[in-house]
Design goal:
Shape: elongated
Structural class: alpha+beta
Largest sheet: 4 strands, antiparallel
Number of helices: 2
Distance between the termini: 62 Å
CATH topology of the largest domain: Outer Surface Protein A, domain 3
CATH architecture of the largest domain: Alpha-Beta Complex
Strand order of the largest sheet: 11-12-7-13
CATH superfamily of the largest domain: Ribosomal protein L6
Radius of gyration: 21 Å
Number of strands: 13
């Protein structure tokens, strides 16, 4: 039995609706919808939701924990939300917000304009900090990865865009010959 799959999901702070295999979770921060795989069985018991699987086939075992984790991420997203923080390292590298669009100067010959999806909120508390927040965990991570891909941190000086909790291992540069 899946360790994650057999844990119940607490749904007391959200409004949970099930229509066939389509589930809707509504909370104080918004609403999320998802289609659950047809072989997964959802059971609501009071303020807890359990995900069951019909048998121990390999595909059903894989979907069991996944389905439960996706539902838990939806519940967490509409109650507390998700946030990713990016740091910009480098002389002259900076970010600013212009009409909900992100404007980045990253040492290229041209600035980079990024238009985020409407479901997300992007903040720039300092010219070298970017905060991405929203209810959908997948979308927050996807947008953070896209912004990071504009200038990944290089291994010698660490210049570029990195996650705030990312640890960079720097390489040693060239040494003088004898």
């Amino acid at each position: 039995m899946s360790r994650i799959g057999k844990k119940p999901v607490n749904i007391k702070d959200v409004e949970f609706k099930k229509d066939g295999q389509k589930i809707t979770v509504k909370g104080k921060l918004g609403q999320l919808e998802m289609e659950v795989h047809p072989s997964m069985i959802l059971e609501v018991e009071g303020e807890e939701l359990s995900v069951k699987r019909p048998n121990d086939q390999k595909e059903n075992r894989a979907l069991h924990g996944l389905s439960r984790a996706l539902i838990q991420n939806m519940v967490t997203g509409v109650t507390t939300g998700y946030t990713k923080e990016l740091l910009i390292v480098g002389v002259g590298y900076k970010a600013e917000l212009r009409d909900k669009n992100l404007f980045l100067n990253l040492g290229y010959s041209h600035p980079i304009y990024f238009m985020p999806p409407d479901e997300l909120t992007i903040e720039v508390p300092a010219p070298t900090q970017i905060k991405i927040s929203g209810t959908d965990k997948e979308l927050v991570g996807l947008v953070a990865a896209k912004i990071r891909s504009f200038k990944k941190p290089e291994p010698y000086k660490g210049k570029g865009i990195k996650y705030s909790d990312e640890i960079l291992i720097k390489k040693a540069g060239k040494t003088a010959g004898k």
